[in-house]
Amino acid sequence: MEQDDHRILARRLDLFHLEEDAPGMIYWHPAGWRLYRQLEEFIRSLMRQSGYEEVQSPQLLPRSLWERSGHWQKFGDNMFVVPRENGRDMALKPMSCPCHLQIFNAGLRSWRDLPMRLSEFGACHRDEPSGSMRGLMRTRGFVQDDAHVICMPEQVEAEVARFVAMLSSVYARLGFDDFGVALSLRPERRAGSDADWDRSEAQLLTAARAAGLAPVLQPGEGAFYGPKLEFSLRDRQGRSWQCGTIQLDFVLPARLDASYIDAGGNRAVPVMLHHAVFGSMGRLIGILLEHYHGRLPFWLAPVQVAVMPVAEQQHDVARDFLRRLVAAGLRPELFDQAETLSRRIVDSHDLLVPVVAVLGKREAQDGFVTLRSKHGQWAIDRDEAVARLSRISAEHGIELR
């Protein structure tokens, strides 16, 4: 339905906008950025718990690096290039994988250092055709929850299982209890030998099955350097969205001269797993907005609580309650306009705020607050209200019940 288009919802909720003279680039507004950062911190925390070290790599890199990696030959037409008079052209990165190998290569590594898990909220730029762009779903500038595991071949199965467990948990918390999975196999244009592809396809399929997956095979759809598992979410409108991926790569580490000292004291080439749970951060937000018709779960809502004094005499106690909610890590907003309470409640509903906190004369005197959600209303001690709302948000609760 048109009203569920994420671009229309973004205008209604004041989340972001685009400009005609900057096609495919997103201007995030305060409410939209609060949602964005909530998702970012959510996945960052899980990555840290799973043993990943966060890094940051440059945006502008030499063309020679992209030629060595093979990306120039594959993606050169879609890269934003900065020509230089000395012939050493630079380009904005379309992905972060060569950068993470450069970080790996900056030190002498041994088998004891592996697996090395690196993550980055990597800002990427791709010169997409103008007709292919649609709001957040496809843009020229985007950020990925990018991660790479550099490891020994015998560690691949355990690392794929680790990723699948994390991805399953994340999707369930976002409200997607089921997802589709496909294994994309060697494309016609590819790097690496047939032996490399035979090995990587067989190993990734074995790892997927060991992780409890039964992927549908997709011949010809793999990345140019390796096969990949693709994970698709089905929204409430029955549409399928490809989000997460994990790719097994025997090619890129060798191309960029990555190596480690194995247990026998010999130099060996590692393998690399490329993966993302969300994919594009912005695109996931677009999917969530349309999936929930804008009524995001409590823990994700840009404004979680609308704090409403009934009359001017309750403004001070309302501001105090707002400060306590903010101190507890919540995202409240004060609705103290010179309008009737019922009008302000309607305004909060139009903005799809999940919880309304009403503070009138009785609440102010007795230390209570009246909380309202679509499931009803409760008079509750203000300390208890802060603790309860904070707990629901921290536990990724859907809404107050």
UniProtKB/TrEMBL annotation:
Keyword set, alphabetical order: Aminoacyl-tRNA synthetase, ATP-binding, Cytoplasm, Ligase, Nucleotide-binding, Protein biosynthesis
NCBIfam families per UniProt: thrS (TIGR00418)
UniProt KW Kinase keyword: no
This protein's encoding gene: thrS
Quaternary structure note: Homodimer.
EC number: 6.1.1.3
Reactions that this protein is recorded to catalyse: tRNA(Thr) + L-threonine + ATP = L-threonyl-tRNA(Thr) + AMP + diphosphate + H(+)
An annotated Gene Ontology molecular function: threonine-tRNA ligase activity
Source species of the chain: Bradyrhizobium jicamae
Top-level EC class: ligase
Entries under PROSITE patterns matching the protein: AA_TRNA_LIGASE_II
Name the record gives this protein: Threonine--tRNA ligase
Family from the record: Belongs to the class-II aminoacyl-tRNA synthetase family.
Annotated ranges, domain Aminoacyl-transfer RNA synthetases class-II family profile: 5-297
